[in-house]
Amino acid sequence: MKKLFGIFTILLTFVFVLSCGAKTEEAPAAEATGKKVAIVYSTGGKGDKSFNDSAFRGMEKAKAELGVEFSEYEPKDPSVEAKNQLTEYAQSGEYELIIGVGFTMKESVEAVAGEYPDQKFALIDDVIEGKDNVVSLMFREQEGAFLTGALAAMMTKTNVLGFVGGVEAPVIHRFATGFIQGARHVNPEITILTAYVNGSNPFNDPVAGKQLTESIIAQNADIVMHAAGATGAGVFKAAEEKGVFAIGVDSNQDGEVPGTILTSMIKNVDVAVFETIKAVVEGSFEAGVKYFGIAEDGVGITELEFTKDVIGQENIDKLNALNAEVKEGKIKVDENGPLK
Questions:
Q1: What residues contact 301, with CB distance under 8 A and at least 6 apart?
Q2: Tens digits of residue pLDDT in 213-261
Q3: Which of 323, 276, 271 is closest to 295 using CA atoms?
Q4: In this structure, what are the phi and psi dihedrals at residue 214, rounded to the nearest 5 degrees?
Q5: What global pTM score does this model have?
Q6: Residue extents of the structural domains in the chain
Q7: CATH 3.40.50.2300 fits 36-139+269-296, yes or no
Q8: 3-state secondary structure of 220
Q9: CATH number assigned to the domain covering 141-266+306-328
Q10: At what angle do helices 232-242 and 206-218 cross, to 10 degrees?
Q11: Between β-strands 245-250 and 299-301, what pairing exists: parallel, antiparallel or unpaired?
C-alpha cells in the first residue's frame, strides 16, 4: 500500500511540474517597423478618462499591432505650447506622422504643416483645407448624441433634461444638437436646459461642472449629459448626490459612478488615430477630411453594463432600432440643428 501511495505521489508531482511549466500562448507583439509617430494631446491630457485617453488607446494599439514607436506631449495650454512642440517634432525629421488632438490645435497644426510640407500631419476635430500633408479627422458627434438624447427622453420622469458643454464651439454644439434632436424625436414637448463652462480651463474644471449641473437639476432636470472632458467628474458628482442620472462622453465612463451614469456617448478617437497611423505605415495616407459616424464605428453608446435592468429591454430594442435607422441613413441628424 505504501509503495502504491509513493508511486501515486510521484505521478502527481510530475503532473504538477508539467502544468507549472506549461505557458499560456500569447499573441505575439508586432515586429518593430522603425516607424515613429508623435502626438500632442489636448487640454486635460492623459488621464481625463475621456477624449485624450481615447487618443492614447489608439496610439497603444498602433504600437502593439503595427510595431510603431511613439512620442507624446501633454501641454498645459495647447494654444500656447502646441506650436513649439509640433515644430520640434517636425524639425527632427524622425516622425512619419504628427497628430494634434483637438480643435484648439488647428492654428498651430496649420502653421507648422505649412512650414514643413513634406511632413505628414493629422488634426482631430477641426478641418484644415488646401494642404496635401494634412488629414482632418472629424466625427459625427450628433449621431451618437442623438441616441443618448433618445434614451434620456425614454427614461426621464420630469420631462426636463440637461446638457453641460465645455465651450460654445462647433464640435461641442454637435453633441448638444444631437442630444436635443434625439430627445425631441422621442418626445417633441420635452425641455432641454443647456449650460457651458467656458472660462480659462473649461475641459478640466470639475468644480464648475458640479455647480452648473446642480443649477440644472434645481430646475427639475433628472438626466444631464456632459461634453466637457475632465469637467464631467463634477457633473457625475452632482448627479450622484442629487439622485439623478448623468450621461458620459467620449470614452466609456459608465463605471465611474455605476448606476448613476445612464450611458456614455462613445467617440472612438482611438479608431481614427489607429486607422490613420495604419494608412501611413501601409503607404496609403491621403490628405483631406475623413468623417467617422455611426456607420464608420466612429460614434455610438455603451453596452449599458450597469443600467440595463433599469432601462428595460423594450427601451433597449427601441434604441437599437434608432441606431440602425441612423446607420442606414433613414434618420438624418443635422449637425447644425437646434441648440436649445
A1: 144, 147, 148, 151, 263, 264, 265, 266, 319, 323
A2: 999 999 999 999 999 999 999 999 999 999 999 999 999 999 999 999 9
A3: 323
A4: -60, -40
A5: 0.86
A6: 36-139+269-296, 141-266+306-328
A7: yes
A8: coil
A9: 3.40.50.2300
A10: 40
A11: unpaired
